[in-house]
Amino acid sequence: MAARSRRLNIWDFFPLIWLGFLVFPLSSFWEVPRSPAQSMLFLGLIAAFVVLYLRIFWPGIRSAQVQQSWTLGGWAFATASYFVLLPVIGGTATTFLIYGASMIGFQGRTGLALWLAFVNMAVMVWPFWTGTYRPDDIWWLAPNLLFTLVAAYANHASYAQRIAGARLAQAQRENERLAADAERERIARDLHDLLGHTLSVIVLKSELAARLTERDPARAAQEIREVERISRDALTEVRAAVQGYRGSGLSAELARAKVALDAAGVRLIVTDALPELPTRTEASAAMLLREAVTNVVRHAHAHEVRMTLTATPRGHKLVIKDDGIGGHAPEGSGLTGMRERLRALGGSLTRDGTAGTTLTADLPAAELGESAAGEPLPHGLRL
């Protein structure tokens, strides 16, 4: 599964916190004077370990689905580092066993993650069997064993959740693409059925009228009137088709939003009954809801979305709020387009990234403009 470029958020820096445990082997190593060769070997080992750790955990350089070879390599390197450093720094070398368990947990095979974590736990206990550690050292053994198992299991659960989310997002993008393709095919089919035959007839009758202009002006005028009638009928049919393309309203979009959010594990709460809205205003509200839900599913990491639509002195106010990560990242083309669409209607859209994301749209009470795009059609025609 290919990685998609995105901005890092605060949670992406969380794996860096665990690198702080390297302070234990570092402090143990520098407790006594070391030769330059020993220092270079030790620092080189630490640097190689950090590179492996970042390759597995850091979102900026890893893919959404980490290759299993990297996690196996990270586990093997961390376990080998334990054996190399155990005679040098003593018990603090067990830090690498815990790191190794965390690395092997970050892949899709539960059995492999747990079995290799148990291997690390057995390796951790081994020095007590051989008498390398004194009985007084056993006080730190139990928490380290627990950390090893928890690191493997927790990272495996986190990885599984991440992959499930990536697959869900991919499926939603595929569904959106298929729906867009199907809609384009439907529009092309409708236009062919509506206008193909009609325009052919108009062309033929216009050519006939041109030929009859001098020979039979009365017949030519009759053909021109027939062209006018056919054109008006075609305009009526196109108007009906465009009305169908505008969508099925806010209620239908709300139902689709609930399906999408349920699939992503997000709860949708609508605080009040939906009031009646002008046609274009309702279409804009539905499109804003669709854009908001798309952003929640893809980026917000939210658990709940609240939607409120209330009457105001100049129209209605639509508020869509989630409890996700929020922030003030630059807006995409979707929200920018919605802001321009609402501005054309005489409304406005604001975004607040504090404590989640809140979209507030002021919807006007009356429709402005003539066409579906917000501009009058040529010659005063309306669709």
UniProtKB/TrEMBL annotation:
Gene3D superfamilies: 1.20.5.1930, Histidine kinase-like ATPase, C-terminal domain. InterPro entries: HATPase_C_sf (IPR036890), HATPase_dom (IPR003594), Sensor_HK_TwoCompSys (IPR050482), Sig_transdc_His_kin_sub3_dim/P (IPR011712). Keywords: Kinase, Membrane, Transferase, Transmembrane, Transmembrane helix, Two-component regulatory system. Residues 183-248 form the Signal transduction histidine kinase subgroup 3 dimerisation and phosphoacceptor domain. It holds the Pfam family HATPase_c. This is Sensor histidine kinase. The keyword Transit peptide does not apply. Residues 286-366 form the Histidine kinase/HSP90-like ATPase domain. The keyword Repeat does not apply. GO terms for molecular function: kinase activity. Coiled coil: none annotated. The chain crosses the membrane at residues 13-32, 39-58, 78-100, 112-132, 138-154. CDD domains: HATPase_UhpB-NarQ-NarX-like. PANTHER family: NITRATE/NITRITE SENSOR PROTEIN NARX-RELATED, SENSOR HISTIDINE KINASE DESK.
